[in-house]
Amino acid sequence: MRKRQIITFLLLLLFPLNIFAYSNQVIVGGETIGIEVHSDGVYIVGFYPVAGKNIGESAGFKVGDIIKSVNDQPVKDINSLNKSLSKEMAYNFMIERNHKLISIPLTLKKEDNILKTGLFVKDQIQGIGTLSYIDPGTGVYGSLGHEIIESSSISKFEIEDGKIYKAEVSSIKKSQDGTTGEKNATINQNAILGTIELNEVEGIFGIYQDIPKTSTLEISPKENIKSGEAFIRTSIQKDKTEDYSIKIISLDDNSTSKNILFEITDKRLLEKAGGIIQGMSGSPIIQDNKLIGVVNYVIVEDVKRGYGIFITTMLEEGDKLLTKGD
Questions:
Q1: 147 φ, ψ to 5°?
Q2: pLDDT of 290-322, one tens digit each?
């Protein structure tokens, strides 16, 4: 029986597409970037006992719920949540669950003279990834090739806003079959590169602040991609970006995001990283001097192999940013 492949996101349903105007030439990334996103509301990520009772879970809250308001006062972040909870009394929490609003009452009392909810909460996620492309015509950039996931609920993190920063690789934990390694990086939060405005299954997208004056590569239609030799562009040492050889094994036009199955063949990358590692998500895939896709998954049981998403799919999604709010 064929051994089941276990697939994981690297960091982490195509929608109907209309007419898009992305450039045929883009600036190719490969640089490691810092990522910070803030939620639209406050996520519940766990529970703790208050006076020996699990008051949060007993009230009906679930991990993954998003607190949107308390007693009709909007909750945008943890700071506004704290301000809305001032004394011992009954509160009405409006939460979002599966895109539906639900009202949950919760009476709070002090323990050790501290008002406690019994809820562990989160309003932001930080991490690293790899810049995929910048469209010089619009300033739209894309990264990751997959959505940012809230780890407690294993669901898409609904964002209010975010930023990407300059980052530099500080160390590498190698991958080995069965265990995915990772990049460690130093993030310079004084060096903002751009906004994050969309978090979708195709990647994260925003506006790049200062578009570099550098060469571009042509976009390859998916029909022109073929099996055989190609390269990924990524950074595994400080801020140095290099191309590493891969072999494209097969293509799947029917998959939503696992379009390009490939294997790393470059001995330098295998020696340094062992295979695909977390933080490599978003690394551009280049064939015949054209941008064809972006690395987004690793096959955990065979870490030399992974998947990529077609670049045209990412560009189409990123292009929606130009009409956001219309």
A1: -80, 160
A2: 999 999 999 999 999 999 999 999 999 999 998
Handedness of CA 164, 169, 170, 175 (dihedral sign): positive
Distances (CA, A) of 103 to 69, 70, 96, 113: 10, 10, 9, 27
- Active-site residue among 65, 281, 283, 319? 281
Q: How far is the C-alpha of 293 from the C-alpha of 311, rounded, in Å?
A: 4
Is 146 catalytic? The answer is yes
Closest CA to 25 of 175, 176, 137: 137
Cα first-last separation, the chain: 52
One domain for residues 178 and 102: no
Q: Among 40, 77, 243, 266, which one carries the catalytic annotation? A: 266
151 assigned to active site? no
Residue 200 shares a structural domain with residue 63: no
Distance CA 176, CA 179 (A): 5
What is the pLDDT at residue 202? 97
Provide DSSP, 4-70.
Answer: PPPEEE----PPP-------SEEEE---EEEEEEEEEEEEEEEE--BTTB-HHHHHT--TT-EEEEE
CB contact set of 117 (below 8 Å; sequence gap of 6+): 50, 55, 56, 85, 106, 108
Q: Is residue 66 within 8 Å of residue 40, measured between CB atoms?
A: yes
Residue 23 a catalytic site member: no
Same domain, 19 and 76: no
Structure-block tokens of residue 138: 């619009």
User: For the chain, which residues score pLDDT lower than 70?
Assistant: 1-21, 325-326
Indicate if 318 and 285 belong to the same structural domain.
yes
Q: Assess whether 14 and 131 both reside in one domain.
A: yes
188 half-sphere exposure, CB direction, 13 A CA radius:
13
Q: Check which CATH number belongs to the domain holding 156 and give it.
A: 2.40.10.120
Pick the catalytic residue from 132, 146, 175, 283.
146
Residues 223 and 276 both lie in one domain: yes
